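REQUEST FORM: STRUCTURE PREDICTION
Request ID: SP-0412
Submitted by: Lab K.M.
Chain count: 1
Length (residues): 210
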Amino acid sequence: MPREPKHASNRQAPEIDPELDDLPLSKRQAAIDGIAPSRNELKKTMQDLQELGEAVASLPVDRLDKLKLDERLRDAIDELRRTRSFEGKRRQVQYIGKLMKHEDPAPLREAVASFRVGSATDTLALHQAEYWRDQLLAGDDALASWVKEYPATDVQQLRSLVRSARKEKLEPGERHGRAYRDLFRLVKELMATESDADDGAPGTGPSHDD
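STATUS: Completed
RESULT:
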């Protein structure tokens, strides 16, 4: 005799993963309804939120102030900055990750990406300034190349700094002299000024008519 099908009310309810409590409401409900991603995917989502929270926490204070963060999250970030022990930092980062489920991640990812691009640009500018300083000290041919690239340069001032820096003799372990540092500072400032002029100039190319 065939078995009678069990009534729907007699079926055992699906077990709810306690980790779902850490998910945003929409994803938690989706998991309960049986349409959510796998358990591993859920863990990956929470890990991503924790990493994003840690990245947000590493932003400078002035950038954090511009973000519309939940008060509890901002307090948790401030507490993380005050925490010194490794274990304490680890627990606080986990807590920040849980609080991130209440935030819209899109503007936070944008803020982190914008800061990282700016930091990378600053680092590149420093490397370029170091390169030009070393080239100017290595030989006179670099001066003509520099003036061609940065025609607004006070050539007499630059040449004087180069000569002074070349005369500075360093003993092992001794710091570079003032002229060496002043040369780097001048090169960096001229590069920054030229870059700002290029960004503000109309058309496709910079103008040096001033």
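NOTES: Residues 7-16, 203-210 have pLDDT under 50 and may be disordered.
Reviewed by: T.R.
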